[in-house]
Structure formats: C-alpha cells, structure tokens
Amino acid sequence: MAIRQLSPETVNRIAAGEVVERPASVVKELVENAIDAGATQIEIVIAAGGLSLIRVTDDGSGMTPEDLLLAVERHATSKLDEEDLFDIRCLGFRGEALPSIGSIARLEIRSRPADANQGAAVVVTRGAKAPVGPAAVNRGTVVEVRDLFSATPARLKFLKSERAEAMAVTDIVRRLAMAHPDIGFTLQTGEKKPAIFARGDRSSAAWLERIGAIMGREFMDDALEVSGAGSGASAPMRVFGFAGLPTLHRQDSTQQFLFVNGRPVRDKLLIGAVRAAYGDLIPRGRSPLLSLFLDVAPSDVDVNVHPAKAEVRFRDAGRVRALMVRALSDALATAGHRASAQGGVLTVESFAAGVLPNAGMPPPSSSYSSGSAGYKWQPPVASSGFSETAQTPFSVLDAPSADARTLAEPTAAGGTVDKPLGAVRAQVHENYIVAQTRDGLVIVDQHAAHERLVYEKLKASLASGGVARQGLLIPAIVELDDNDADSLVARSDELAELGLVIESFGGGAVAVREVPALLGETDVEGLVKDLAAELQSDGTARALKDRLDSVASRMACHGSVRSGRRLTVEEMNALLRQMEATPYSGQCNHGRPTYVALKLSDIERLFGRR
Known about the structure:
Elements: H1 8-19, H2 23-36, E1 41-47, E2 53-58, H3 65-71, H4 97-104, E3 106-112, E4 119-125, E5 128-129, E6 133-135, E7 140-146, H5 162-179, E8 184-188, E9 195-197, H6 204-215, H7 217-221, E10 223-231, E11 236-244, E12 249-250, E13 256-260, E14 263-265, H8 268-278, E15 287-288, E16 290-295, E17 301-302, E18 313-314, H9 317-334, H10 342-355, E19 368-369, E20 376-377, H11 388-391, E21 423-428, E22 432-437, E23 440-445, H12 446-465, E24 469-479, H13 482-490, H14 492-497, E25 501-504, E26 509-516, H15 524-538, H16 542-558, H17 569-581, E27 595-599, H18 600-606
Parallel strand pairs: 1-8, 13-16
Antiparallel strand pairs: 1-2, 2-7, 3-4, 3-7, 4-5, 4-6, 8-9, 10-11, 11-16, 12-15, 13-14, 17-18, 19-20, 21-22, 22-23, 23-27, 24-26, 25-26
Helix pairs in contact: 1-4, 2-5, 5-6, 8-9, 12-16, 12-17, 13-15
C-alpha cells in the first residue's frame, strides 16, 4: 500500500485515542485548563458518567474571539514560553486536548475576558468547526462536551458502567482539588448532592483541611506533617504534605496521593521511596495513607513522557528519592511512640456494641425510643418500696471502701499519670497492661511493645557497629546478565556495609566472598539475583536489608517479654517509659498497634454520662 497523508480529522481522532481514554480524561484536561487560567472557583457537572454531558465552568482569565478560534486548532497553546519543553510551569501545554475532544464529541466553548463587554462562543461537532459568534457569559470560561465518543462508537464498548465512570471523574477532581486548596471546587455527578470543596489558602492548616475533606477525619487525626528540602540537579527542591501514622494503613494504595509541581502523578520512584521510608513499620502487602507534594525546578523533571502526563522522569532520581525518604523518615521518627487514634475509637465502638442495645445512644438527658427495636431509655426513678431495713445494706456506700485517691502519685518508681502513657494500674490476662493517664487510660500489649523495643535496639546496634560478616570457605560464583553484574559491582561498597562482599568475576558473573553472619545459612545465589533485580528496578538494594531486618525481627520476638508473664509494677512502668523514649514504638514489628488509648470522655459516653 502506498504511503499517504492522513486527513486532519483522522489525525485528531488518533490523538483523541491517546489523550481521551474515558470521561475522566476529558474532565482532567478541562479542569487543568481552568487552573492554568487562574480560576478561583471551578464547577464540574457531568451526566450519565460524563458520556452525555461534561460541563466545566471557571472564573479564570477567559479568552478573546481570536483565542477561541485558535484554541480548537491542534498544537495551539499559550502555555509554552519560546517552545522550551524543559521549562513547563503549567499543567497543560500540548494544545491537543480541545481539538481532540471536539473530534469525537460536540464541543462548545463560551468565554469572556474581564475587560470585555461581551463573550464569544465556538462550537466543534465531531471535527466540524462553526464560526465564532457572540455569547452571553460571565467572566471566565464555560466548556460543554456532549455525546462523548459519538464519532467513535466502538470506543463505548470499552467503557465501564456510568457509575464507575462517575467514580473515576470524582477521583480526578479530588486529586486536583487536593493540590490546589486556594481554589474552590464543586462537583455534581447527578447521583447525589454535589461535593463542595470550599476555597481556602495555601497554609499548612488549610491544606490539611482540604486533604481531610477528601481522605476523611480518620486521616486528619493520625496525620504527621512532612517537610524537607534539598539540592536538586539545577535548583533547590522541597517536599511537604502529610503522612499517616504507620498503624494507619490499607490493603490498596488508593489513599496515596503524590504530586510533582502540583501535578498528580503515579510515579514508581516516588512509590518506592514511600515504601522504603515506612519499611518494617507496616505489615507486608499493606499501604500507608499520605498526601505528598514535591516541588522541583521545571528543568529537573520531564513531564512530557506520557500522553496523560501521569508519569514523570527526574533528572537526578537519586536525589529525589533520598529527599523523599529522609523527609518521611524524619516525620515518622518525630511521632515517637504515637499510635493511631483509630485504635481507641474502635475499642469504644466494640464496647458500645456489646454493652448498649443500640450503639451511639443519646445521653440520658432526654428519653429516647428506638421505634421498632423496642428499646426505650428512661431515667431511673427512686422507689419508695424499700423499708428502712432494706436500705441498711446500702448505707456502707456512703463511705469509701478503700483508698480511692487514684490521682495520687503511685508508690512504684517511674509511674505518673502526667506521662504520655500514664502510670500502671493493673496487668490483666498476663499480657495487657492498664495504665491511667491524666485524661483517660491506656491498654498496652506487653509482648508487642517489648518486641518493638528490642527490635529497635538490634537495628541501632547493626547501624552503629556494622554488620558482622561470615567468610565463605569457597567463594560463591553467581552468573548474571552483564547489566545485572555491573550494577552489583558498582554498588559493592554499599553492599559491603550490609555485610555482603562481592567482586567482579569476569563478564556476567560476580564472586561472593562474605555474607552477613546474621543470616546464617542462606541461599547466596538467590539473594544476589534478588538484589540485582531490585537494583535494576529502583536502584536500591532493599532485599538484603529486608532480610537482615527480618532476622532481627525474629530475634526480637524470641527475646521479648512473652505473653503470660506476670510483671511487677516497676517493670511495667519501666516498659512504658522506654516506649515513650523509643521511636516507632506505637506499632509492633508486624505493623500492629502496641497500645490503644481511651479518652475519659469516650468512657463516660459509654455509661451515658455525656
């Protein structure tokens, strides 16, 4: 077949296939345009999951009739300065979105700049452009997309249900709203009341409020502020945001939000940095909750590597990763012994479900009827049926039966209710320590808590004294791919610090002369191949460190206080004080909380006192 030039309509539809995968892709492009236009309020309305209608309204700078005419032409943009693709300071820049959308749907744009007396409108129907005409419109821009994919009906077969498409739109809007707390967003999907994100500022408090509106109060209660700065390839860079405590985690990564220069991304390097920072603080296969923003010089990141701009490439990936890991690690270490507040909430809910006929009952200030449940609370009524003799046994309650001065300083050394984890009051079931704080109580799992303390001491010992090595009587020769072998040899100094001594052994092979003594008998070949694979994927030798940590964790488990052992008050108070002084002691080696805290107000609520 002879080579021929494709028609502009076909070219636009091909471009649309790259840019517009589903309705959420259209919403993303249009909202990004509104943000780039300096909007302070953006309204998004969709119908039928975005297939029949998508309307985005903003109060941005608006466009003149001449701008409108160019806006629907391919590769026409106002966002590139002197066509420098390495100095991109906006979200959109290719100039493909509007003409691509117009080639597969009915596209109408109405816009008016602030200094214009009237607006203008242009309509593109499946690639056919109508002349620009006058339009009544407020300052800013209104973009309507109707009958999406009507020019490519075969594409409809690959879409999900309207509800699923609406959820994808919601996810896109939430991510963009999270990155821009100084812009107000309203999203109407047609299924329920609109989601409204009120406009704030770019302060830390306003940012957390916006993040909490999207990720929920649960995250806000357990969020740690993250902040760090470092030198980039050509200019300083910084990371900021909020990360959840290690005891707050999920099975999937849908609650991990990562941004580069305000752009939502799903970047393997950043995800790997998050995994490395949390390390052994969360269970394997679980994902922490966080929202992190990385600001780098535009020349240090390439955002033009993916049609949907969902992936980026860093000029110096090593520095970016180091900054992310350091900032997250510092925030987690600063949290000290703190554990998720959800532990106490779930404990109270568990008690309420077992004690009250209906959880969440109102306080006894007024009677309540549960309707069909048949439960009705009434305040107790004093009975006049008791004789004087019948009341006698209760007269002893007028005086205390024992020393009730619970707030007095305990006699056992090291115990005080003013400490974060309080003073020991009891040990129950030979495993759980009950301590009293100034405003509540704490229940500690003694085995899990001590296991973390021993584990942290082992890790500190490994870090300060180095990893003891065990020489192999006969060096192990491991054959690898040339690139894998070169990667290992290039990182031999780092591996030696972890106790693994290797050297080149000709082309495509390495000789292993020493291994970490802590590992005992191990599969040297398997270990080396795992390390090579990791170095190729994300540039880190995590497998060896993970194995050392795993061994240290097992040693800590066997060397810690066992369940079923009775402890003295002094021993229990000493355990609490060590927990307060040890970072990460809020979770055990397996990522479970080591204690739960109950506020006095929650306990009183259980008994109807609030």
